[in-house]
Design goal:
- By secondary structure, this protein is α+β, with helices and mostly antiparallel strands.
- It has two domains: 282 residues, Zn peptidases (Aminopeptidase, 3-Layer(aba) Sandwich); 122 residues, Alpha-Beta Plaits (2-Layer Sandwich).
- A hairpin with a 2-residue loop joins strand 4 and strand 5.
- The mean pLDDT is 96.
- The structure holds ligand BES and manganese (II) ion (MN) (2 copies).
- Ligand BES binds next to loops.
């Protein structure tokens, strides 16, 4: 008799052909001209779920991109898993530095290259293929499963909160499961037990009522680009510590245990240099690299623009300058309070020669998952089975707004079982997903679903 995992190995080529079809749909949620592609990807995913034997699969409308909901509820009395993933992807164009077409996936060296391979279509596929492998070999599945696939994760999950709230009965379950994060290194299975939250804001600085000739007025008008640069520069001190008073007041203090376990996370300066290519390390000297990316909040200017940025030159003093900023929050920080701290800081650092305004876009708090939740122990055993060693627990710097929403609105623990690797190039050119991780991911998922009923009665 074929075991589910043997089935997965025997069918790997078929799985990859199917995944390739999914990856070829450029479901870029940020770009309005890809709106139809986003829907196409949703329809593809729903149809695929049905083809695997799920008993229901629908593309459900929201005020933004649609949500895919699918289910198989043939295990009465057994726990129900809510699996969340996202089928939207980040923008990608060949000219950004891709070696292959981002939406024509290529398999090389046991890796699949293309936009969405690791973030997150490839990881969603792990669970669909685990389901298929178990169904095809045993005719049934050990738990009830509800699949929730979002099409707006990469643009901040704006419409997911109302969707989850208004479908709380449909989405009722016992455990949330997400594969949209990564491991520290190959062979080092990792469970993320904390994600950072996010506050998005914009600072506008205005001066003259329209652009001015820089020859006629230069030297007498405070240039909004200069003033905004000074404001932005004041957000950190010379050592890289955040200089906004009140910003970090509520930051959750790490327990002695967490300090110790973070210090054992194998993330070295050398790895940092290889991954980033930046010439030197920067940032708050009071914390280690790993603490800075998981356990500390940040303020990052994602975009800075004002005046003329086209070809050649245009000699003006611009009327307006803009900074697009996101802050990563750690647990206990309140997005609104953080925003107000920045608002006060900007007001205090705005000279009388210009006006400034800070606008709140959205906010999501950070979260920690209780490592002692029984479902966590199931995940630990599942990794132990597939990787031959227990996973490391780590705090992750990225954000997945849905995780917080699932916990708040559905009241369930959410397990972050991610299989990405540090060199997967998420959001960057040449995104890839290791096929070894794909196979191990399927094996881990099969084991997780198999073990869950024993732990959750
Ligand atoms: N999968 C990532 C988040 C992530 C990355 C978690 C690496 C763990 C490790 C997700 O798709 C993402 O990019 N999230 C955005 C959310 C934002 C747009 C609200 C992020 O973190 O910037
Ligand atoms: Mn993702
Ligand atoms: Mn992403």
């Amino acid at each position: 008799m074929t075991t589910p995992f043997e089935y997965a190995l025997e069918n790997q080529d078929k799985f990859l052909r199917e995944l390739t079809e999914f990856l070829r749909i450029p479901s870029i949620s940020a770009q309005p001209h890809h709106k139809e592609d986003v829907r196409k990807a949703a329809e593809w995913a729903a149809a695929h779920c049905l083809s695997l034997g799920m008993t229901r699969a629908e593309v459900m409308d929201t005020d933004g991109h649609p949500v895919v909901y699918a289910e198989w509820l043939g295990a009465p009395g057994k726990p129900t898993v809510i699996f969340y993933g996202h089928y939207d992807v980040q923008p990608a164009e060949l000219k950004d530095g891709w070696h292959t077409e981002p939406f024509h996936p290529v398999i090389m060296d046991d890796k699949i290259f293309g936009r969405g391979t690791a973030d997150d279509k490839g990881q969603v596929f792990i669970h669909l293929k685990a389901f298929e492998s178990v169904m095809k070999t045993t005719g049934t599945f050990p738990v009830n499963i509800k699949i929730l696939l979002e099409g707006e994760e990469e643009v901040g999950s704006i419409h997911l909160r109302p969707f989850i709230k208004s479908h709380s009965e449909l989405l009722k379950g016992d455990v949330g499961l997400v594969s949209d994060s990564g491991m520290l290194a190959p062979g080092l299975p990792t469970i993320v037990y904390g994600l950072r939250g996010l506050v998005e804001l914009e600072i506008y600085v205005t001066g003259p009522h329209h652009d001015l000739h820089s020859g006629a007025y230069g030297g007498t008008v405070d240039n909004p680009n200069h003033a905004l640069s000074r404001i932005v520069a004041s957000l950190h001190d010379a050592q890289g510590r955040i200089a906004v008073s009140g910003f970090a007041d509520d930051v959750r203090v790490l327990s002695a245990d967490e300090h110790a376990s973070i210090s054992h996370v194998p993330f070295t300066e050398e790895m940092w240099y290889v991954e980033t290519g930046a010439p030197a390390i920067w940032g708050d000297p009071d914390f280690t690299l790993k603490e800075r990316t998981g356990a500390r909040p940040t303020i990052e200017v994602n975009g800075l623009f004002g005046g003329y940025t086209g070809d050649g030159s245009k000699t003006i003093i611009p009327a307006k300058a803009t900074a697009k900023i996101t802050c990563r929050l750690v647990p206990n920080q309140n997005p609104q309070k953080v925003f107000e701290a920045i608002q006060r800081h900007v007001a205090a650092h705005t000279p009388p020669t210009v006006h400034s305004e800070v606008s709140f876009k959205r906010g999501e708090p950070g979260l920690v998952v209780d490592p002692n939740d029984p479902a966590m122990q199931v995940a630990v055993e599942a990794y132990q089975h597939s990787f031959g060693k227990a996973p490391i627990f780590t705090l992750e710097g990225g954000s997945i707004p849905a995780v917080m929403m699932m916990r708040e609105s559905l009241g369930i623990p959410v397990i972050l079982m991610g299989f990405g690797l540090p060199d997967d190039n998420l959001h960057a050119p040449n995104e890839k997903f290791s096929l070894e991780q794909f196979r191990l991911g399927i094996q881990t998922a099969i084991e997780f679903y198999r073990l869950l009923p024993e732990h959750q009665k």
